[in-house]
Design a protein that fits this description.
Blueprint: E1 15-22, H1 25-32, E2 35-40, H2 41-46, E3 61-63, E4 71-78, E5 81-88, E6 103-104, E7 112-123, E8 128-129, H3 136-140, E9 143-147, H4 150-162, E10 168-174, E11 176-177, E12 186-188, E13 193-194, E14 203-209, E15 216-219, E16 228-232, E17 240-242, E18 245-247
Parallel strand pairs: 11-13
Antiparallel strand pairs: 1-7, 1-9, 2-7, 2-15, 3-6, 3-12, 4-5, 7-8, 7-14, 9-16, 10-14, 17-18
């Protein structure tokens, strides 16, 4: 299998590479050995690291509290059942009643696992690689892995996921970033939707739900060292195209 380039980058780029960054060399080597660490949605929601933390992670919806005249959410009894009722007051703000719920997360989201990778978009014919964030090492970790064959990588991940009957709702793909003008009112979240301030992260995700609230290390049962190579965030400037060939620094 393969996943084509994100629609928003077509025209400027014709392909992409995936990179995984970690905070220590041990995690880098685990990834190369085919042991992928999936953290919980709660970890990202509670993390105060600029590159990893997002307080909205795992939310099912968010009511934008800076625009209270638009939406209101309350817990109400409907036909004898307790439900969260969301009302839109855009057309009749004079009837607005303050809500008691600003955001809500389904219980299953506490069991959601996520691994995040960085997407480096490329234009092979023009020998261009999309610019890397200036603080890549500081925000994502200094120890990286450059995945050169994404198709084989996807196949190995999917094969490993199929071996676990307790895993459900597995997805992989690009994160969509909201436009600033759309950040108001009622926002339906999912693991592949983030606020516009995170757009520089070029995030690609693999996510699933299982029956625990603990992080999970997924063993692919096969090494990735034939299709992926270690790299350091501080040396990303040494990756370049020349004569249709990709050059990158080598490490042991």
């Amino acid at each position: 299998m393969d996943i084509g380039i994100s629609e928003q980058f077509k025209g400027r780029y014709d392909g992409y590479m995936l990179l995984k960054f970690t905070s220590c060399q041990e995690f880098q080597q685990d990834f190369l050995d085919g042991k992928l660490f999936f953290n919980t949605a709660d970890f990202f929601a509670q993390c105060d690291n600029l590159g990893r933390g997002d307080e909205n992670e795992g939310n099912t919806f968010l009511i934008e509290h800076n625009n209270p005249d638009f939406m209101s959410a309350n817990l109400e009894s409907v036909d004898g059942k307790m439900m969260i009722v969301v009302r839109d007051y855009t057309n009749n703000p004079e009837n607005y009643k303050p809500g008691t719920i600003e955001n809500f997360s389904r219980g299953e989201n506490r069991c959601r696992k996520i691994i995040s990778l960085y997407t480096a978009y490329v234009n092979v014919s023009k020998e261009i690689i999309s610019p890397f964030p200036a603080k890549m090492g500081e925000e994502f970790g200094e120890y990286g892995v450059l995945v050169l064959d994404r198709k084989k990588f996807f196949e190995r991940v999917c094969n490993a996921l199929r071996q676990h009957s307790e895993i459900s709702k597995a997805q992989l793909g690009f994160v969509d970033y909201m436009k600033s003008e759309d950040v108001h009112g009622f926002i339906e979240w999912n693991p592949f939707l983030k606020m516009p301030q995170y757009e520089y992260q070029n995030e690609f995700r693999i996510s699933f739900i299982n029956d625990t609230q603990e992080p999970l290390k997924l063993d692919l049962g096969v090494s990735l060292r034939d299709i992926a190579f270690p790299i350091k965030a501080s040396d990303l400037g040494e990756i370049f195209f020349k004569d249709n060939l990709l050059y990158y620094p080598l490490y042991k």
